[in-house]
Write a structure and sequence with these properties.
heterodimer, A: alpha+beta, Beta-Lactamase, Immunoglobulin-like, 10-stranded mixed sheet, 5-stranded antiparallel sheet, 7 helices, 26 strands, 17% helix, B: mainly alpha, 39 helices, elongated, transport (chain B), ARM-like (chain B), membrane (chain B), AP_complex_bsu_1_2_4 (chain B)
Chain lengths: 424, 740
């Protein structure tokens, strides 16, 4: 299992160093610095030298690193790194060099708690916060009864929730967020269009609420079986630790006792009948070797009551571009030489609308005959109250022994960032 | 939820031992709420982090243990974990504090004490830990028990024999039946660690215990689920139904959000399928495994990478898992390079006649990207696609010719390398493109592509008008070329001579090359081959012609599928480093234990036949401790090498060595012909390889015909040439010791 856990900054300085096993020395950190931090061409998140393997995940210029000397479960090691990041986010709000340095003592406490001898242990932020806090605690001050309650929870069947949660107003917010992946060929055929969705929940519910959740979904195990027309076909779904998988398997009901506060209830994937919110029609012509002519049109493909916001197109230009003359009716377009793209930002496009971009790029003549690789146009956007898969929350029921009324809010968001690509 | 309040970054400053000592002493007076000492300790911890040796402060720091502040206690403990081992003489002074904490009323403190003590493998600490640990393993608080379980693994690591003598392994085993799922999971993790040691005890599960563990999965944390699921591979089903029932219970975990739970579940399912008979169930399981595997591709890029490398193995063993899903493996432009390279291999493997067109279009797209490795691999994949899918060959060749037109040197070189293989796969179909290749001769500067081109010139010397001129040019630098090219030049010039023996130039050329090869070159291979050709030509040019120009067997893509037995074995490591590098862990990690399918009456015949036993580098005979035998309270276990016969899955130890070799009777049934015919009839072990692709059957046939080769993995990586990032770097044992 994990022999050591490190956090490095961009310069390769060690910000956190915790050795779980005696099969390593701290000087192993130097090896990572040389092999990864100061290496400009790192081509794998795992590097194995001899029997020692370094796993790293990058976040905000930090390297979260786990080192092993055995045939470690790689998925587990990376999930642990991800989990550390999410715990740190939940504790400090952000995960960067400043936050790590400012809280290093607390981080040592955390990494001692969430991983023992290299074996990840309970890592539910909510539970951890009940006994690892930023305020200093006197050891004599914790009543043994109180600690027993904590330990039972930390090792219990619902390790993600404290029993004594109380709210005046019982509310639950459900956000259905869909990321659309699109890859469109130059000929305009869809190579790939699918949805990575997740349902984010913020539960502010008292006591130990028992929730039942319903969607208009239909999990497709076999593509040949067809269901009712209005059901959305999900290719797969994965659930938070709190969802009873046995129950889902036998009756398809999603039932659970939620953690307090924000968590990701489920993730799903849909590939059939994906409604693409934006249609992008590029026309890019190379005129001789010194000019490129662009006409890019976006059409929205949803009801005119909705709108796409924060639309950002990155339209690639050849490497030897000197200047780009852009004409846009809405939004702003700007040539960014450092990235070899024109960035076209449109704050809002109403449903049913169409906007066009036209530009003219001037190129220097070059001697190299290297053909322009034509990277795809990348489109980022957000559409509120729209799901590309057509998924709808049918119900969310909350049962609690005190029988309180609870208010539920549902929001839908479809977005793309870095995954909506149109080749030309 | 504050944290904004903490402003500790200022402590990251190099400090001197003397200063810290003085500060600690000064802080002893007037230190309300201990803030002064807290500050100094923080500075010390920051310095430890930065790699400064703070061990001289040992005596000063442990003075702070008496302070009733949990934060200070934890910092001192951290200090002790860092330096405790090297200060074995002074650590004695801390023992009373530790022992007092072990008795604390607060379970968190009790757990913290034993956890910290067990991190310090100094003999004195280990000795003092024994009693508290024994109590902790039976503590009424589950948090203490789950911590104690891991402590046993630590203790075993420090002193295995002592740990056994003290009966901790048995106590640990009893925790397998604890009422708390977290305790069970940690006990499993600890036993697994002990069982994986080469000098450890044998940890095997019988059906009863395996089922009990499985019952704990639902209440475990996600990590606990992984430990428990992982341990199920230590259970060997004796009956098909046992394996089938267990798979049905495990399968729900595929829906878990944690990718490691998903991959471990898949590992268990793949393992159990080796012991199953019910084909419908196996088809169902395969169908259920596909979507979760694809979903892993929406995790972070690191997990995607792990998933992709595993998918590559899984689809070779169970092709029906992702048969129709090639599109999801198309690369996104901004995928990290390691994800792209891994996807490319999967795309190639999933390519079939039905999707060849789409795959080719994608590969062409990639061939114009920027990353050299990726482009090369894409170009090579186009060629391999031509070889694999016959109906797509024409389009692939067209694509390769277009790529050669770009004149980008590395693209041209890759194209030449694969085209050579295409020629061998489809003799007489594409030789028309040779002139185009010859026109690009100058672009070739890498040995592999140069050798490939020389092979083409030699092989088709009769169709290339100016072959002798080309060869003359090519041999110009003969003595400076790498061996690979020299060998190719030697063979090609002999071929040229045989084709055009009447020509004086070729005669002179072959003479020159043979002379160089035999007189000027040091490489024995080259020299020997030179002598061989020379004598052959001298004795009988006709015979030489028959030998040198003999018809070569057409190339197939079989060779880049991994051997079935090797796959079975590698899949036991699903999700681990071994599955990423496609190597058995014992081959690249020191001290790692190999795994092999264990024979049982339920094991399907083909798996048995291709079973690769583990090469156990056993140093000591394993101590045989009865694990687990929880139903028997009167357990006394003299380490006994005498094993009772296995019956009805009762709690009996099985010798690891014995299980690996099929018994004589089983081995003989497996090799008789009825079994073989069944396999060839497509009725293999029922994993529904109703694949219509021919080579699937060929592969099965091969699998049972060929005994496991010495290196069954040799084939895989060759399929994509030398540039593969996914390999552990061997840098000699000396270096490894440096890392230690």
């Amino acid at each position: 299992m994990i022999s050591a856990f490190f956090i490095f900054n961009q310069k390769g300085e060690v910000l956190i160093s915790r050795l779980y096993r005696t099969d390593l020395k701290r000087s192993i950190a130097d090896v990572f610095r040389i092999q990864v931090v100061s290496n400009s061409d790192v081509r794998s998140p795992i590097i194995t030298l001899g029997s020692t393997s370094f796993f790293h995940v990058r976040i905000n210029n930090l390297y979260i690193v786990a080192v092993t000397k055995c045939n470690a479960n790689a998925a587990l090691v990376f999930e642990f790194c991800y989990r550390f990041i999410s715990i740190a986010k939940s504790y400090f709000g952000k995960v960067d060099e400043e936050a790590v340095k400012n809280n290093f003592v607390l981080i040592y406490e955390l990494v001692d708690e969430i991983c023992d001898f290299g074996y990840p242990q309970n890592s539910e932020a909510d539970t951890l916060k009940s006994y690892i806090t930023t305020e200093s605690v006197m050891s004599t001050n914790i009543a043994p009864e109180e600690s027993s309650r904590i330990t039972v929870q930390a090792t219990g069947a619902t390790s993600w929730r404290r029993g004594d949660v109380k709210y005046k107003k019982n509310e639950a917010f459900v956000d259905v967020v869909e990321n659309v992946n699109l890859s469109m060929s130059a000929k305009g055929t869809t190579l790939r269009a699918d949805v990575d969705g997740h349902i984010q929940m913020r539960a502010y519910l008292s006591g130990t609420p028992e929730c039942k959740f319903g969607l208009n979904d239909k999990l497709v195990i076999d593509k040949n079986e067809r269901g009712t027309a209005d059901a959305v076909e999900l290719d797969d779904c994965r659930f938070h630790q709190c969802v009873r998988l046995n129950e889902f398997d036998s009756t398809r009901t999603i039932s659970f006792i939620p953690p307090d506060g924000e968590f990701e209830l489920m993730r799903y994937r849909a590939t059939s009948n994906v409604k693409l919110p934006l249609k992008v029609i590029p026309s890019v012509t190379e005129i001789g070797t010194t000019q490129v002519q662009y006409v890019v049109t976006i059409k929205t493909n949803f009801s005119n009551k909705l709108s796409a916001t924060n639309v950002i197109l990155k339209i690639p230009t050849p490497l030897n571009t000197t200047s780009v003359d852009c004409k846009v009716a809405s939004g702003k377009a700007k040539y960014v030489p450092a990235e070899n793209v024109v960035i076209w930002k449109i704050p809002r496009i109403q449903g049913g609308q169409e906007v066009t971009f036209s530009a003219h790029a001037a190129l220097t003549s070059t001697t190299t005959r290297q053909v322009w690789a034509r990277p795809p146009i990348d489109v980022d956007f957000q559409v509120l109250m729209f799901t590309a898969s057509g998924l709808i929350v049918r119900f969310l029921k909350v049962f609690e022994k005190s029988n309180y009324q609870s208010i539920k809010w549902v929001r839908y968001l479809t977005k793309a960032s870095g995954s909506y690509q149109i080749r030309f | 939820m504050s944290g904004q309040g903490a402003q500790d970054a200022k402590f990251f400053q190099r400090g001197k031992i003397q200063e810290f000592r003085a500060e600690l002493q000064a802080a002893e007076s007037k230190d309300k709420k201990f803030t002064k000492r807290k500050t100094v300790l923080k500075k010390i911890v920051a310095n430890i982090t930065m790699g400064n040796d703070m061990s001289p402060l040992f005596g000063d720091v442990i003075q702070c243990l008496g302070i009733p502040s949990l934060e200070i206690k934890k910092m001192v403990y951290l200090f002790l974990v860092c330096y405790g081992r090297s200060k074995a003489d002074q650590i004695r002074a801390v023992m009373p504090n530790f022992l007092q904490d072990c008795e604390d009323r607060n379970p968190l403190i009790r757990a913290l004490a034993i956890r910290t003590m067990s991190y310090i493998p100094a003999p004195i600490v280990v000795e003092e830990l024994e009693d508290p640990l024994r109590h902790a393993l039976k503590d009424r608080d589950p948090y203490v028990r789950k911590t104690a379980a891991i402590c046993v693994a630590k203790l075993y690591n420090a002193d295995p024999r002592k740990c056994e003598r003290n009966g901790f392994v048995e106590l640990l085993r009893d925790l397998l039946l604890d009422t708390n799922a977290t305790v069970v999971a940690n006990a499993v993790a600890a036993l697994t660690e002990i069982g994986d040691r080469q000098d450890g005890v044998i940890f095997k599960l019988n059906l009863t215990v395996a089922n009990k563990l499985l019952a704990a999965v639902g209440e475990s944390s996600e990590w606990g689920q992984i430990y428990i699921l992982d341990s199920l591979l230590r259970y060997v089903p004796e009956k098909h139904e046992d394996a089938e029932l267990m798979a049905e219970r495990v399968i729900v975990q595929l829906q878990h959000a944690n990718s490691a739970v998903v991959l471990t579940t898949i590992k268990v399912l793949l393992y159990l399928m080796n012991y199953m008979e019910n084909r419908r169930l196996m088809d169902y399981i395969c169908k259920k495994m596909g979507p979760p595997l694809v979903t892993l591709l929406s995790s972070g890029p690191e997990v995607q990478y792990v998933a992709l490398r595993n998918i590559l193995l899984i689809i070779q063993r169970r092709p029906q898992v992702l048969k129709n899903d090639v599109k999801v493996f198309f690369c996104k432009y901004n995928d990290p390079i390691y994800v792209k390279l891994a996807k490319l291999e999967i795309m190639y493997r999933l390519a079939r006649e039905e999707n060849a067109r789409e795959v080719l279009a994608e590969l062409q797209e990639y061939a114009s990207e920027v990353d050299v490795d990726f482009v090369r691999k894409a170009v090579r994949s186009i060629g391999r696609l031509a070889i694999k899918v016959q109906p797509a060959a024409d389009d692939c060749i067209k694509a390769l010719l277009e790529l050669i037109e770009t004149k980008v040197t590395y693209v041209v070189q890759e194209a030449v390398i694969v085209i050579k293989d295409v020629f061998r796969r489809y003799p007489g179909r594409y030789e028309g493109i040779i002139p185009t290749l010859c026109a690009n001769l100058d672009a070739l500067d890498e040995p592999e592509s140069k050798a490939a081109m020389i092979w083409i010139v030699g092989q088709f010397a009769d169709r290339i008008e100016n072959a002798d001129e080309l060869m003359d040019d090519l041999t110009y630098t003969f003595l400076e070329e790498p061996t690979e090219v020299q060998l190719a030049l030697l063979s090609a010039s002999v071929k040229l001579f045989i084709y055009k023996s009447h020509s004086d130039t070729t005669k002179a050329l072959v003479h020159k090359v043979l002379k160089w090869a035999t007189e000027e070159v040091d490489n024995p291979d080259l020299r020997d081959r030179g002598f061989m050709y020379w004598r052959l030509l001298a004795l009988s040019p006709a015979a030489a012609s028959e030998v040198v120009l003999a018809e070569k067997p057409a190339i197939t893509t079989d060779a880049d599928r991994m051997d079935r037995g090797a796959l079975d074995q590698l899949l036991l490591h699903t999700g681990t480093l071994g599955s990423i590098y496609h190597k058995n862990p014992e081959t690249f990690i020191r001290g790692a234990t190999g795994k092999a399918l264990t024979d049982s009456p339920a094991l399907n015949p083909l798996s048995r036949q291709v079973l690769v036993p583990v090469a156990r580098t056993q140093l000591l005979p394993p101590a045989s401790i009865r694990v687990p035998g929880p139903v028997d309270p009167r357990v006394v276990n003299p380490p006994s090498p005498v094993l009772p016969p296995r019956q009805n899955g009762a709690s009996l130890p099985a010798d690891a060595g014995a299980a690996l070799v099929p018994s004589a009777s089983q081995a003989s049934t497996a090799s008789t012909s009825p079994a073989t015919q069944d396999l060839l009839g497509g009725e293999d072990d029922g994993e529904g390889e109703a694949e219509t692709e021919d080579h699937d059957h060929e592969d099965l046939a091969r699998a049972q015909a060929v005994a496991p080769a010495s290196d069954p993995y040799a084939a895989l990586d060759n399929a994509f040439g030398g540039h593969i990032a996914d390999a552990p770097q061997h840098n000699g044992d000396a270096n490894d010791d440096l890392l230690f």
